[in-house]
Amino acid sequence: MGDSNRISVHRVLGEGLVADVVLWKNWRGAVAVLVSATTLWYLFERAGYNFLSFVANVVLLLVAILFFWAKAANLLNRPLPPLPDLEISEETIARVADALQIWLNRALSVAHDIAIERNLLLCLQVVGVLWVISYIGSLFNFLTLIYIGVLLSLSLPVLYDKYQDQVDGRLGVIHGVIQTQYKKIHSIVLSKIPKLSNKEKKVQ
Questions:
Q1: How far apart, in whole angstroms, are the C-alpha atoms of residue 12 and residue 54?
Q2: Domain-by-domain residue ranges, the chain?
Q3: Which residues of the chain register pLDDT less than 70?
Q4: C-alpha closest to that of 110 among 101, 102, 119
Q5: Fewer CB in 10 Å around end: N or C, the chain?
Q6: 3-state DSSP assignment of residue 88
């Protein structure tokens, strides 16, 4: 596979700060995210620290630091602590609302196809995905899942970017096998649908 067919992972991730951190181009940011996630996971999962207590203590510490900094700056004629404008812009809210609208419309479209169109294959896919999520949730709690997600997001993209040709080759083989099995299941399901409709007509 030539370089012309390679996917730019950095471009797919948006070519911004997040892409630099995930691909370890900004290694300081990546290390900061990894250390912060590991520290929080250890505090809440291993040390038994309470989340609300942690947030309250952090906010209390910040308020105390800012208060004494402002007092000292007033007494010593020093500049006040540089605090940014703590407000959310309308543009940010609009972007979040647009993204949320897209996800909600997709979910409603899936629900419509299952309930109204009676898409059996889509229903089976949704049931399978929900079962996998339920099974994974029974193995790990929510915080551990988030921590695992952080670890995977800091490892899988950079590994794929490095070994993209080998990974694409293996995924192509796996995709072919899945497509073959899917077509078999699809044909079996479709062959049973007319039989079900004929039975309903006989009952009527």
A1: 36
A2: 8-163, 164-193
A3: 1-5, 81, 83-86, 189-204
A4: 119
A5: C
A6: coil
